[in-house]
Design a protein that fits this description.
2 copies of one chain form a homodimer. With 547 residues, chain A is α/β, with parallel strands linked by helices. Chain A has 16 helices and 25 strands.
Chain lengths: 547, 547
């Protein structure tokens, strides 16, 4: 059967091809970086290429070996892009440390990853000092923006010049690791995944397609999403693959600084979490005419759900908000809320309701959702189950953390922890996190749906619905309600309000009034605290005034 | 080092994912096919999926094995798309027979490929009858558009219903073959290449990106380029991956039929050879107002160079012509003539000069050009050498044809046979075919450049420049000129005309007047015939009037 073998070249999918392409095809394309002092530095792609190559050779000269982790603790800028390409070109794994985590966590993560070399922005040295002693033997390279390089650390500019031409870059297989990220670790230890050259290349190819991020040589891209967070959603790789101009904001992520860069550098594509865009919207609203030139800007929004009203208002301003969903374990792109033409024709309300969903899977991401018995559910727009994903840029395990093997199904799908419905055209709607969904008598009730409905009652300021143990139904919902000043509410009144939308068995069994819903530092409900507070709840004993 | 291994899933890149995606994500998207009687048939993606699955199971039931070739002899239509997915889903290699070749060649090709089953449009049976007896034992399945299915052949509609649910589709590895095409064989035997699932998937991913074909779910795609020619440039796979609406023209490739479909089905993307677009342009010019709705249409043009004036005129009409270059051995996409923003700013003349080039490489296509000594040439915009290519969707050999191993360099690059210059931003300009370039004293002279310049002389109707043996310089150019009626030209006059553009050593040594340049059926110069006619040329003996 040898004569039926495909006759295609065995050409590996590595980031090195993209690095070479930067110099060969787009040598004079620009990379603009805003420095800590707010001045802009301008580099060309050819310059980034040359310096990334120097960095790779210098790393090898410094003695790192294949697969060794080289970490970065850095804002978004050109030198970080050099690390994105130079570290993998040396055969190493670039480990981006998330500077938003606690110093304790960052130290744990750097030690767990066994980072051999850490490349740090000088402006981040005060943070670095808080955890560097927790990391085993390592070298520190400081990217100098004006600050002094402390004793015992090396200057990045001098370090890359230690490279010599006799150092040969290693052959890279497409399955070799190129980068790693840790999840933020809201539950349990932070856990890391190692991306391969192949996974990153495929993620870039699909990321660039029109219905995902849609990146072109004609674009000017400003990633607000940090390069230390989930590969900045793959934008640095996908964007350089197509030769886009880049504008990196450095540490300046306030609305005024971003809007100034958008306007002066003629940014056409951006991406960031909803809070960034809420801030930008508030600034624009103060003087919409001033920002008229932003019409045509597209931006990806992810990390958490963007409010539909915000998506709609941006659209009125001529700015397209592309709602995307993914996870660090997914490189991160999973779904994008593109609206199919036949749905877009159904009017604004339908259109924006789809724009605010999680969207449908990108090519080469498989989705399914299963109930608590492991049954695969129909895509009927109503059956709720945990979303599971599969694909070439999705993790198959955590790095050195076998304890979390239960995050994968027996047949190898990654369990996202998100409770979703899927409709008959593949649109995903997240209804809950799996830890918050109420598992009642084999059926699931969305705590988020109940909360939204309860908060729609005029007497209610805020509400969290939690699952508590029930001897007969396993779990039942308890509604924890913050009333508006001077208002009152009975369970009978609330039931009447909810019965428009919910079946009787889905209603909270009891309600309890509290002063406020406990929240995390980013404003998310801390339901775990509520569950702990009410863990001994006696159903039906009318304790609502007892708190 | 096990702990440094990437933790990504081992997920194969196969067409089966795209087939499943058609039903899961885009079930109600439309596929319109124009039948031989000019009526339109409408299918959904879900229907195409189901029928492709049936075809796959029916093929397995019919006894084909992994890697067996199943051929098609068919126009562009929905059932051909079913073959594009169904044949590979059975683990077979879809072999698209080029119905434009001579019956002798098609018979040779089908026999060389060892096609086990041939799926034929009923309207193509008269052609099929001319070569079917030259193919060893095989089964014939006829796609019925109204004609009778001859004895000894099977009806496609009945054949796919022979599938049974107990037939399990095979596991596919991404390196398995999925399709094959033969080159037209202008020199020597037709030669085939076998694409792998992996190569086709990667080609689709890059093909869909904005700067290559730029395909989206919002597009309506009409591929004029035949599905029997170089995978219709990958449009069927890339387009279904993103969920585009398809309109297949069947056998109706005349300008009026195409324009009617463009208008009524609201086509947004098309692709075909220059002659198709010349015909369409002529029809539009008769009544441009009638075709105003075509503004916004984009079309890929390849196969041979499109005249710059045509590209420009289409742009005035609001139709973007995307000049692309590739080869059957390259799946076929290699370069696309996108104009970088900084070049587009330099005014229309620069802009359109770039639009008319071959363009720069798509991601994951490597280019280089080498001189006759094998030296890699600089990308300086003037050094001429043979273009060589490398990449994951480029052939590494021909199928069962070791005699042509010299088409690959010792280090594994495919030698395209095109003589090119490369500029410092990667733009390719084809200056000649390697068999036509004049290799004079170690330097190369472009026959095409000389021809274009000579045809710019007012006395000349047509000219072909050929390389002939020269005892001192190895080869020297002979200009074969067709004069306009009543005109005359001396070598001295011609030299004076050419010296504006060429160095003295590049000028033709002699000129000869002929009645016409011999041409192929597609209008290309048959220089081989001229070289044969003048092979005993005595340089400098002034034989110009002797013909």
């Amino acid at each position: 059967m040898a004569d039926t073998v495909a006759t295609m070249m065995d050409y590996p999918l590595t980031l090195n091809h993209l690095l070479t392409r930067m110099k060969e095809v787009y040598p004079i394309q620009e990379v603009v970086s805003q420095r800590p002092d707010k001045s802009n530095t301008r580099q060309t792609y050819a310059n980034i290429h040359d310096r990334a190559q120097k960095l790779a050779r210098a790393l090898l000269k410094a003695g790192v070996g294949k697969g060794d982790r080289v970490a970065t603790l850095a804002w978004n800028h050109g030198s970080h892009l050099e690390c994105y390409y130079g570290i993998p070109a040396a055969g190493c794994v670039m480990h981006t440390l998330n500077l938003r985590l606690s110093p304790t966590d960052i130290g744990y993560i750097a030690a767990h990853a066994d980072d051999k070399i850490i490349i740090v922005d000088d402006v981040l040295l005060p943070l670095y000092d808080q955890f560097k002693d927790n990391i085993p033997a390592h070298r520190t390279i400081v990217i100098p923006f004006g600050g002094r390089v402390p004793d015992g650390m090396e200057n990045y500019e001098e370090f890359i010049e230690t490279c010599t031409d006799d150092i040969v870059l290693p052959e890279i297989a497409e399955t070799d690791g190129c980068a790693m990220c840790y999840t933020s670790g809201t539950t349990g230890d932070p856990k890391g995944v190692i991306y391969s050259h192949r996974s990153m290349v495929l993620h870039s190819m699909i990321g660039a397609t029109p219905d995902v991020l849609g990146l072109s040589n004609t674009d000017c891209v400003l990633p607000v999403v940090p390069m230390f967070h989930a590969n900045a959603w793959g934008i640095p790789y996908a964007g350089t693959m197509v030769g886009a101009k880049f504008v990196f904001p450095g540490p300046h992520l306030d609305p005024e600084s971003l809007l100034t860069q958008f306007m002066t550098e003629k940014v056409s594509f951006s991406g960031g979490v909803p809070t960034v865009w809420l801030g930008i919207l508030q600034t624009i609203e103060k003087d919409p005419a001033k920002y008229e030139a932003l019409r045509g800007l597209r931006t990806a929004v992810g990390g958490s759900a963007a409010p539909p009203a915000v998506i709609r208002r941006f659209q009125e301003l001529g700015i397209t908000v592309l709602h995307a969903w993914g996870m660090t374990e997914m490189s991160p792109l999973g779904t994008v809320a593109q609206v199919k033409p036949h749905l877009a024709e159904k009017g604004d309300d339908v259109y924006f309701s789809y724009r605010a969903r999680q969207g449908y899977a990108t090519p080469f991401v498989d989705l399914r959702h299963r109930d608590s018995d492991g049954q695969i559910l129909p895509w009927d727009g109503k059956s709720m189950g945990e979303l599971e994903v599969r694909g070439p840029w999705i993790a198959s395990s955590y790095h050195n953390y076998p304890e979390a093997a239960d995050r994968w199904s027996n047949d190898g799908w990654f369990r996202t922890g998100d409770i979703v419905t899927m409709d008959d055209e593949g649109y995903v709607q997240i209804t809950d996190r799996s830890k918050d969904v109420i598992k009642s008598g084999g059926e699931w009730i969305s705590s988020v749906d109940l909360e939204n409905a309860i908060m729609g009652h005029p007497a209610v300021a805020e509400a969290a619905v939690i699952a508590l143990y029930h001897p007969k139904w396993d779990e039942r919902p308890l509604a924890c309600i913050v009333l508006k000043d001077g208002e009152a509410l009975t369970k009978t009144e609330l039931d009447a309000h909810l019965l428009d939308e919910f079946a009787k068995w889905q209603l909270p069994d009891d309600i309890v009034f509290i002063d406020e819903v406990p929240k995390t530092s980013t404003g998310k409900f801390q339901k775990l605290a509520l569950r702990k507070q009410f863990e001994d709840w006696q159903w039906g004993k009318d304790q609502r005034m007892a708190i």
